[in-house]
Each structure stands twice: as C-alpha cells, then as structure tokens.
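A reminder from the course coordinator: this example appears on the midterm review sheet, so study it carefully.

Given structure:
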C-alpha cells in the first residue's frame, strides 16, 4: 500500500548515446483510485494548474 503518489527515478533511453549520458528524471506516479477514494480531485487539479505555469530550474516541467 502506498500513499496518493510516489516518485520514481527514471532515465530516457537515447539509442545513440551511452547509458551514463541518458537524461535523468523524477517521475511522479499518482493513484487515481486513492484520489477518488479520499476526495482529493480538486487538490490534484490545482497542483496540475500550478505546475503548468511554473518555470524554475529546480522544478521539472509537467508532462501530461
């Protein structure tokens, strides 16, 4: 059992580059079932809206 979301480490596979140079990412995985059960839909919608407008080197862009 996990919370509403979890963050995983990921790499983008780039065929013409070596493994050590593949771009690294943090991927947030959200449980839609938990969001619905707890009634957090509006919180997630607000988080998505904020992430869409943010531009900061320490915050990754939102990929939807």
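Designed residues:
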């Amino acid at each position: 059992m996990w919370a509403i979301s979890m963050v995983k480490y990921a790499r983008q596979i780039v065929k013409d580059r070596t493994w050590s140079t593949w771009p690294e990412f943090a991927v947030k995985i959200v449980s839609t079932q938990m969001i619905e059960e707890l009634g957090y839909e509006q919180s997630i919608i607000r988080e998505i809206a904020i992430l869409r407008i943010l531009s900061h080197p320490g915050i990754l862009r939102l990929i939807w």
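The chain has a mean pLDDT of 85. The radius of gyration is 15 Å.
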